[in-house]
Amino acid sequence: ETTTTTTTTTLTPGKPTTTTTTQPTTSQSGKLSMIYPCPAYTTITCAFGAYYGHSGCDFATGGKVNQRIVAAESGTVIISTDLKNADGTYRSYGRYIVIRHDKTNSSGKTVYTLYAHNNSRVVSEGEYVQKGQLIAYSGSTGNSTGPHLHFEVRVGGTSQAYAVDPELYLP
User: Fold this and answer.
1) Where are the beta strands (DSSP E) in 61-143?
2) Residues 134-146 pLDDT 10s
3) Considering the entire predicted model, what is its pTM?
């Protein structure tokens, strides 16, 4: 982590005072710095593009539901919803969330992250979330064969066509 050190000297008659402040620059920089969205499970079990139409990566959750899912970076929740069929069963991403991040990538483009197949969501559309904040609990809703997190990074737009390999952004 990079830090910025600022030294200020104040001259008071007969008594100079020096104050030194050190703080991380990552919080001030406008560049993205993501963390793993499922902190307890950081191994990717199905990579980006592993099969036709797989526009993210999957993190298995050890066969368990209700594992903590956190915001990979700070931003505003723009989607927090359930995708359901007419009969009430889940489809596609199931219970999912999309966050628009306030920091850009190295090219200055807006970045969005998507978190899918959740058992439950704990954030709402319009809510601002901090990096590392709990946003959901893992599940197996939608097109899913077992408990896991499907995680996408989209650069420059919100549709699936803007998806890029999330591993380019993860630690």
Assistant:
1) 68-70, 75-84, 90-104, 110-118, 120-121, 128-129, 134-137
2) 999 999 999 999 9
3) 0.83
